[in-house]
Design brief:
Blueprint (H helix, E strand, L loop, with lengths): L4 H23 L16 H8 L3 H12 L2 E5 L2 E4 L2 H9 L28 H15 L1 H4 L2 H20 L5 E2 H18 L12 H8 L4 H9 L4 H7 L6 H10 L10 H6 L7 H31 L4 H11 L10 H13 L9 E2 L5 E3 L2 E3 L4 E4 L1 H6 L19 H10 L13 H16 L2 E5 L9 E3 L4 E3 L5 E6 L2
Parallel strand pairs: 2-7
Antiparallel strand pairs: 1-2, 3-11, 4-7, 5-6, 8-11, 9-10
The structure holds protoporphyrin IX containing FE.
Length: 473
């Protein structure tokens, strides 16, 4: 039987590919790491999980099977241990450089603090921003007063519902938008709870850009064609609002716009707008989803005891927000169980490579931790890690170790700049609500609250959460 030339070529090519695969499996730098066998050869299966919105649960299952270090692809690893969190995100202050994944988060085609990849440039940018988000600035009467006003506006909405139910998803996102915009642009903050800027909240929160963003990240050279298939997310209302508000000549001194406009390094107007747009986007869905998922959890019968204890702490007292330990515990536990950014925060190992969790990881490998797994799979620190148990945070000694592993706001110099603002918003709103109401799931609540993963964040699947606000009086 004679073979034709093309058949011989094909067979040779097959053999060559097979040989290369075997060589890769045996000699690949990551071959010593635990992980599924196919992850040695390609990351197609990981990409399939990403495009179907299953990356986070897929990685979680791999950690359950293979342990705290798992190879996800030929050049990518996920970790869950405290040592890994410290090394990747905190070594040298800001940890490792970010990967090109963060290029997706440019605003007005401009790199912001969040989308800057190298830590040198990042720390320069951060100098101009950090002060406005320091706890001392957030605790100023002007800032807290603005948050308090918006919490009262939210409660007014609950009052108007007269026990018939409120879509908490909508108004908690409005609350987050109004608070963030107040911080960025005061006195030009939005009033979406009252209805004026509701369309902006909808534009920013109800979108589905998962596939477009992932396609751009995975195949950047096809960007031109991808733009034609997946249309860019239009945000004309928010864009115009940010461009206008960040150019006003009389922002309040506590606002970010004021700080950037008066910075020693002269910022171009488009750079100020891009930075503000980024913080607006960073502050809406994160805080809105965190509040919504937690309020829903508290409204379930299994949490009535927790809710009662919260009500008894926040009712009838004039204590400062940081003197309410149970409120703090409830919010921390909500963020631990339902981190709004539960997915991987990818970084590159620096030149020369690094040892992480006892493995040598070569330079330019993508390494990451995801809050979802960090919070659930470190049983010695978070006992019964998959359960909602706010009491765990009341034990001061245990809390030291838990705080070291608390990853909802990221960690190190590139962790969340807005964390004090977010905590103040959440505490203020919960005190306002639970000093006057108990919350229950509305009988006609049909929305599914299972987590729906986006590119890096997660939100309740149906984006609706109908709750009853029953007056305590
Ligand atoms: C519960 C609410 C929030 C959560 C859970 C949260 C979480 C996070 C996380 C995990 C990161 C790091 C992400 C990464 O490295 O991939 C981050 C970064 C950031 N967040 Fe937040 N965030 C929240 C609210 C806010 C708010 C209200 C603002 C501002 C209005 C804000 C502004 C930022 C900024 C500017 C960064 C980039 C920091 C940098 O690159 O140095 N966040 N956030």
């Amino acid at each position: 039987m004679a073979f034709q030339l093309w058949q011989l070529c094909l067979a040779a090519l097959g053999l060559l590919s097979f040989g290369l695969c075997i060589r890769r499996a045996v000699f690949a730098p990551l071959s010593k790491l635990p992980g599924p066998w196919y992850s040695l050869f390609a990351d197609w299966y990981l990409m399939y999980q990403e495009f179907t919105g299953q990356r986070r649960p897929y990685i979680h299952q791999l950690h359950k099977k293979f342990g705290p270090a798992v190879r996800l692809g030929p050049n990518e690893i996920s970790f869950t241990s405290i040592e890994a969190v410290k090394e990747i995100y905190q070594s040298g202050g800001s940890g490792y450089d970010k990967t090109e994944f963060y290029t997706l988060f440019r605003q007005f085609s401009t790199r912001t603090m969040f989308s800057t990849l190298d830590k040198g440039t990042h720390s320069q940018k951060k100098r101009h921003v950090a002060g406005q988000y320091a706890n001392t600035n957030i605790m100023q009467p002007e800032v807290m007063g603005g948050i308090q006003d918006r919490a009262k506006a939210f409660v007014k909405r609950c009052e108007e519902s007269k026990g018939t139910g409120v879509d908490a998803y909508v108004y908690l996102h409005c609350f987050a938008l109004d608070c963030a915009s107040h911080h960025l642009f005061a006195p030009y903050g939005t009033k979406s709870i009252e209805g004026t800027d509701l369309d902006m909240m909808e534009e920013l929160s109800y979108h589905d850009s998962l596939k477009r963003n992932l396609a751009q990240y995975r195949w950047p050279i096809l960007s031109f064609w991808l733009e034609k298939v997946f249309k860019p997310r239009p945000a004309p209302i928010a864009n115009q609002y940010v461009l206008n508000s960040s150019a006003k000549s009389d922002p309040k001194a506590h606002s970010l716009t004021y700080k950037l406009q008066n910075s020693k390094d002269a910022f171009q107007p488009i750079q100020i707008a891009a930075e503000c747009m980024d913080h607006l986007a960073a502050g809406i869905d994160t805080t809105g989803d965190a509040l919504c998922l937690l309020m829903y959890q508290l409204s379930l019968p299994e949490s009535f005891k927790v809710q009662d204890q919260l009500i008894s702490e926040v009712s009838n007292n004039n204590k400062a927000l940081d003197e309410l330990p149970y409120l703090d515990a409830v919010i921390k536990e909500g963020l631990r169980c339902f981190p709004p950014i539960p997915m991987s925060q990818p970084r590159y190992t620096p030149s020369g490579g690094r040892a992480i969790d006892g493995y040598f990881i070569p330079a330019a490998t993508i390494v990451s931790c995801q809050a979802w797994s960090v919070h659930q799979l470190n049983e010695e620190v978070f006992v019964k890690g998959d359960q909602f148990l706010p009491e765990r945070w009341l034990d001061k000694e245990a809390a030291i170790e838990m705080n070291r592993l608390f990853f909802s706001f990221g960690a190190g110099g590139r962790g969340c700049t807005g964390r004090h603002l977010a905590m103040a918003e959440m505490k203020c709103l919960f005190r306002e609500v639970y000093s006057q109401y108990k919350t229950r799931i509305a009988p006609d609540m049909k929305g599914r609250m299972t987590l729906d993963d986006q590119v890096i964040s997660s939100r309740p699947l149906d984006q609706t959460c109908k709750l009853l606000f029953e007056s305590l009086n």
